[in-house]
Write a structure and sequence with these properties.
The complex is a heterodimer of chains A (289) and B (256). Chain A has 289 residues and is mostly helical. Helices cover 79% and strands 0% of the residues of chain A. Chain A contains 13 helices and no strands. In chain A, helix 6 runs antiparallel to helix 7 and helix 9 runs antiparallel to helix 11. In chain A, 27% of the residues are buried. The N terminus of chain A is likely disordered. Chain B has 256 residues and is of the alpha/beta class. Chain B contains nine helices and ten strands. Chain B has a six-stranded mixed β-sheet with strand order 6-7-8-3-9-10, sandwiched between helices. In chain B, strands 2-1-4-5 form a four-stranded antiparallel β-sheet, covered by helices on one side. The longest helix of chain B is centred in the last third of the chain and has 18 residues. Chain B is globular. In chain B, 41% of the residues are buried. The chains are: A mainly alpha (289), B alpha/beta (256). At the A-B interface, helix 10 and helix 11 of A face strand 6 and helix 4 of B.
Amino acid sequence: MSAVAETISRPEAAAPPAAASAAARPRKRATRGLLRLRTPLPRGWGPTIAVGASVAIVLAWEFVARLGLTTPLFFPSPTAILSAMARMISDQHLLWHAWVSTLRVWGAFLLAAVLAIPIGVAMSGYRVVGAALEPAIDFIRYLPVPALVPLAIIWFGVGEETKIFLLWLGTFFQLVLLVADDMRRVPQEYVEIAYTVGANEGQVLKDVAFRAMLPGLVDNLRITLGWCWTYLIIAEIVAADSGLGFVIWAARRYMKTPEVMAGVVLIGVIGLATDQLLRLIHRRAFRYL
Amino acid sequence: MTHLQFDQVTKSFGAVPVVETPFNLAIDRHEFVVFLGPSGCGKTTLMRMIGGLDQPTSGEIRLEGEPVGAPDRRRGMVFQSYSSFPWLTVAQNVAFGLKYRNDLSEQEKAVRAERYLDLVGLYEFSDHFPSQVSGGMRQRIAIARTLAAGADVLLMDEPFGALDALRREQLQTELRRIQRRDAKTIVFVTHDVEEALFLADRVVVFSKRPTRIVAEIDVRSRLGEERSLEIRDGEDFFALRRETIGLVRAAAGDEL
């Protein structure tokens, strides 16, 4: 208690010495202010700090690797990874593999979304549907995707279907529950307003409930798309002759660590770019928020 | 002439009774009735049943002699929060009241929406989103939407509860003016004594549960039909207010 009081009264106590260096004071206060809980960043600082910190991490990594503090076999430098990536692009069709992976991710993701949105909406909108489906969905949701790989191969062989199925499996059941939750959070008032101006049930769903849940839904789709990439690697390691998972796994066999890391980095870059793009779309589409 | 009638209405949610003793009340056409009572006393539930948003467990509510059914646009609702859609502009929110009317052309709808936008003084904010206007304006959007829909019964659930005193006073004056001008029947729920007396033709004072009517105050005979800030500051208003607070305290019983 007394410690708190001391902390609070300190600025006044420190006032006389600080007054001597009045010119340096505002600046100092500004930087210290950034570390206060929930302080908003000044305009334009966010991206600057993000890029600056990322560059700093890469530079530190490069520096440590150049000093010879790491074994290149285990932890190659960023430049080594970059040159491996350049080589892979020209000799091993790396971009084509990335494109194949991206198609798989989006194919499975869209399939999951197209099914999950109506089912999730129905689960919250109609208690009977929710009660019927929730146990089954919860059950499957907890199964680890890798555990279902053998089953997927028995059902679909080792073709595209297996990969799409595994990705779909990892996202659909999660997404259904997220959609159901978005729908559940639509304020009852919105629904009742619509009914009292003469809307029928279909109109309430389409014009009000869906519209109200849309920002949350788009956010959840963005997050789920990220999960797809997680399962992609599992799917492509199992049985594939294309895709980034295949590239990474093949490079590992020969202990080509820079190539493994180049593949991993590329996934990260694609993920980051997609995420930023979807965020931008979200901001544009939902200006009213 | 009776517009709305509660006939032996009871309501329970599952095993939880809200209105136990059969409730009876007749509301005249163009009457402004305020339900005044402690929170959780069932006044909101009674109002929602008029709107068809909750169904009586037993008994009947009649609108112009006919039992009320599912919600329709004759009975408009103004809620305390989430009263307008954030994804629509102010003008689109008001026009939403007319969206499902097939008997009007698009042009008639536009003219009508504009008229009510103007009536509540929001015309210059037409293209703003609700998040860009004040809480008081958001409630005015809801009022305009309900009026535009053509409701002749307005059901208002503490619509000014979240506003500051000044804006609240301003909206109360406006609402009373609109009600007189457009001849609407209004059922208004609040726990604010002053608000109740300033707005109402008749205040119905509720007890805490089990819900029953403790008193009916004929405000019209005491204060007249015209309400202004002068009346609000007058002797009669103060006397009535003191009386009503006494009733509310007695009704709240040991809660206070």
